[in-house]
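Please decode residue identities from the backbone states below.
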């Protein structure tokens, strides 16, 4: 798990609370109220409401088929909707996106394709024509670290390079609202962190609003001010990552191994403690103690080990994560 401290430009917890409400006199960049969407007789989005304010990064997570991409495409004006309202930068988009809104919206879809023989710098130059206040090609190349690929044809780019190019195209018009669908799905850890830092830096300097649909729970937990969890087209939760963890999966876990002969002496004093054979050394048992108050329980574990003259092996302390919340709310069943 990548920790928040690893992201040097990460929004601090004090900043997150300040971003929950749109400041007086400033309109939300995206306002969705009671959105419903049908494919034929099948309802795929149920009464979805959400808001993105200037300077916010919002995560959208859910299992496969939960409705994330449908919601993202509906927000882009690609689908009609049966009921509710969508307002982008204060403008109702039921009749489609006006030219003014298109100038303020940046989109990086999950899947995209471009003419295979076009070079990176040619693609960026073509996109510049679409915007009245476009970023220079050099700035876009630098922003996503594609300077050395500027002459490379689209067909020769790696999956990660194509993903970074998609982000550059989304940023080309200096958007106020950025919609990213799986922006780091094909990226290695170094590239993921680079993109995270770039998104955060853009938000801080321009007060852009960002909606990110992702399967990467660590990405949502580190990067996002609020996370919306969607399942079967319904919005289950909309809160900060830490609020969700505290609400659904509070506490910590203590894991360690001891000789099997002593395992029961460690399990008995701690309610909820479990043991199983240590797969790395079958003469040992691997113990798990879930705790709500770590500072009270961990000293007791250490004191007990000293009294038994048994030093715990591979002692690990961990806290629950957004992934634990996600599984708690959406279940463990595989989705195709």
């Amino acid at each position: 798990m990548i920790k928040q401290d690893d992201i040097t430009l990460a929004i601090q917890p004090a900043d997150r609370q300040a971003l929950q409400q749109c400041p007086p006199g400033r309109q939300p960049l995206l306002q969705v109220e009671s959105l419903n969407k049908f494919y034929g007789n099948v309802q795929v989005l149920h009464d979805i409401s959400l808001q993105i304010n200037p300077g916010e990064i919002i995560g959208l997570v859910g299992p496969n088929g939960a409705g994330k991409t449908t919601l993202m495409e509906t927000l882009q004006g690609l689908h009609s909707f049966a009921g509710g309202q969508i307002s982008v930068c204060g403008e109702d988009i039921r009749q489609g996106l006006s030219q003014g809104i298109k100038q303020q919206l940046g989109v990086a879809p999950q899947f995209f394709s471009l003419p295979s023989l076009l070079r990176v710098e040619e693609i960026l130059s073509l996109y510049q024509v679409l915007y009245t206040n476009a970023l220079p090609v050099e700035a876009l190349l630098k922003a996503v670290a594609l300077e050395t690929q500027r002459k490379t044809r689209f067909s020769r780019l790696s999956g990660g390079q194509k993903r970074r190019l998609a982000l550059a195209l989304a940023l080309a018009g200096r958007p106020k609202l950025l919609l990213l669908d799986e922006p780091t799905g094909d990226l290695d850890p170094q590239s993921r962190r680079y993109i995270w830092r770039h998104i955060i830096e853009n938000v801080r300097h321009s007060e852009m609003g960002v909606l990110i649909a992702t399967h990467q729970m660590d990405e949502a937990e580190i990067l996002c001010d609020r996370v919306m969890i969607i399942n079967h087209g319904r919005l289950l939760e909309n809160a900060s990552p830490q609020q969700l963890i505290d609400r659904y999966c509070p506490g910590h876990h203590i894991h360690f191994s001891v000789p099997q002969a002593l395992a029961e002496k460690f399990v008995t004093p701690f309610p909820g403690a479990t043991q199983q054979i240590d797969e790395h050394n079958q003469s040992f048992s691997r113990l798990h103690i879930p705790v709500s108050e770590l500072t009270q329980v961990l000293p007791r574990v250490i004191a007990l080990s000293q009294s038994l003259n048994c030093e715990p092996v591979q002692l690990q302390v961990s806290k629950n994560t957004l992934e634990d919340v996600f599984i708690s709310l959406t279940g463990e069943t595989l989705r195709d």
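Observation: Residues 189-206 form the longest helix (18 residues).
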